[in-house]
């Protein structure tokens, strides 16, 4: 779609037939046809499959002892509890690591264990088991180390602890590498010797399984923590994880954890309204922020405390850290963008580093860069005292970053992660060879320059299919997330009935769309787009658009109405933008990659210096033989701006139809309207003729103003009359002076002379460009001249 930000990709599945829909309804599924079409598109073709997918009280919770070595872990933990050995839970610094640590800590404490916890400071300890920290913990009395959300790649530290006589139990969910650490036991849903039914638990999910095995129940207070960790870590929201999140959300809505209560109160969010988005956009970023910038312990204590005063202090602290994190990320992204702007071309994989960039925020920076440039990005902090580069990488869907790093692992000190994200550490002495080897991989040799990010569309809907009932049915498929994406819909060729910019800075877009169904009945839909002024500033109420978004129910003054939240907007063909007015707007000559079209040389010369370097100025008289290839010799041109109307349609139609332009800006500014003047009357031509008889010869340079004043005719009309007189051979011109031909007796019909035909066509062009609707202009000019 023209002007869309994304590559719209419709679902591959075959469309549902009417017979399939009827069969499902007859089987007792009292859902709308549109919802059943969505289910079938998602592979839910049987009544049983649809009932399971829409079950909002799922109980899919697999036996924890199906996890390899779980019986061994329970036995060892029971021994440690019975003998009051000091158990240290060694967690991680992100939201999943914090919640998994607290799940284990609260459970062990509740059954009388001698337990403490340690959350590594990523700026000091790095990721995963750390030999120095393990040594310190052992010296302080730790007799059993229980990892969570880390450890699967911690070979050296785990070897150290085991050789020191301290057992290490690893509970983790991250990508497993070829060799496993020599731990006492490893609880991992993907363990090569195990056969656990669900492979995609989060760290918090694995911790929950350990607690369930140890206590023979799933503690209700642990479910809300597991839901936070599961959503925050972007693992699959299917199977067991769906059960964890749905039940955890129910617990969150009545939580007694004072930190969470105050956090949501501060955000003006009622507990009863908590959904997956509130975890993803309110809780998780704040828990992550404290760990990204230093000690993550305040994040855990926020979740742990039941004291209101203490909770308030933690809420203030993590909000401050979150604001600080945003500022740091923005600064780093801006700096990387400036570096990339100086390159001859954007590299296939973006690799940048700086000593002052804190490693904890670099994953967010990499994500922002991937979104902007549509290629993998790995961003590092150079740590001079350790002589290493520590970084985070993110990737696009088509490139498996973990596999790419595996191919150059001989140059990496440490790495871990999965297909779309990774953390890694590079020794300074292998930095150059690492970069060279990585960028030489075949996977980074594909052309990524023009690749737009993919936007997967679930279904095409018409406006009359959209209702509150449909949206409520769609919500039954949630919670939405990884492997269970929120459905995205496209509405094609809808009219804009109302367009308003709202918000304190007019940054949000509100539309009312309308569309007729096959029976000619008109339906309308409210649409909202947030912070999209830059993307859609040229949208007009006259536009016919296709729009992609997700559906929500908007409640206002106890009124509930369907609403679509904008993801993207596109157009069939060129987007024609109406910039007509009495004056040229200040920004009219600032458009990038644009062909500016002029009629008059004087105006062309006045304005061509004001256009951007990526654009070109062109006179209509030079258009006839030009080709798109000639236009694009120096610039990649994608837009047209009509500064003035031409005297004939032909050169403008030639330009309009030479390419599939993205945008056509219609200015069509005129100094004096030929259309409003009209063709000269017999009386007006007689008036001019008699004036010339009296005052000839006419000095055409110096006497035109006097002639205009005394005949009370505009100069444009006088120039036409004089041209007609010349073509009729009523006058001659010598050295800029006009003389009457005194011997002329031939009768000539001035209305049939070429100058009159040219004037009439100029009037038609002006009438089209200046006085018709923008869609009428579009329809006229997009017809080939031959038509």
UniProtKB/TrEMBL annotation:
Any one GO molecular-function label of the UniProt entry: exonuclease activity
Annotated ranges, domain DDH: 87-230
Annotated InterPro entries: DDH_dom, DHH_sf, DHHA1_dom, RecJ, RecJ_C, RecJ_OB, SSDNA_exonuclease_RecJ
Single-stranded-DNA-specific exonuclease RecJ C-terminal domain boundaries: 577-779
Pfam families named in the record: DHH, DHHA1, RecJ_OB, ssDNA-exonuc_C
Domain DHHA1: 349-431
PANTHER family, alphabetized: SINGLE-STRANDED-DNA-SPECIFIC EXONUCLEASE RECJ
Family affiliation: Belongs to the RecJ family.
Protein name from the UniProt record: Single-stranded-DNA-specific exonuclease RecJ
Organism: Fundicoccus culcitae
Gene this chain is encoded by: recJ
